Amino acid sequence: MIEIGRAIVSRDVFEKHFLCDILKCKGACCIEGDSGAPLTDEEAILIEEDYHTFEDLLPEKHKREVEKQGYSVIDSDGDLVTPLVDDRQCVYSYYNKQGILKCAIEKAHFEGKTKFRKPLSCHLFPIRITEYKRFDAVNYQELDICKPGRKCGASEKLPLYKFLKEPLTAKYGAEWYKELEIAADYILSEK
């Protein structure tokens, strides 16, 4: 574990390789898991405010679930998360013509309809950040659904921290990310 600012970063973040291979996994991260995507209070508000910008991308069943459950819910662990359809699929996801699960929020963002891209927890995946009173634990969550991403990352020799530069910088800032790169150089030079 490496301490950078208030974050305690697992060595896996430096040592593991990853590059999302959505053509093989088909967006499984939007359907697999115990509950919806973790949200901050601010993200829950943004989703509610911007819902009209991506609502038309959602299947009718998903729209009915939003009407029924709300824009965000509290899961069994007491965490604020996105609602699910059939206790599996994120309510804000949809299948594109190629049968790949995509994020309606992100699509609206790329179309210039909203400044909010998607929940940071989704953008950071497969990194999970657990916030404690005095520090954040930054860990790699190795799941079977991401085998194609690990294989693709290994073939490209792309470390996980580089793959997730944008969301890590969004979470902690550019200075923090520079310190992360320095730590990575040190850790990887030991091998």
Automatic annotation (TrEMBL):
Pfam families: DUF3109. InterPro entries: Rv0495c. Belongs to the Rv0495c family. This is DUF3109 family protein. It comes from Draconibacterium sediminis. It comes from the Bacteria.
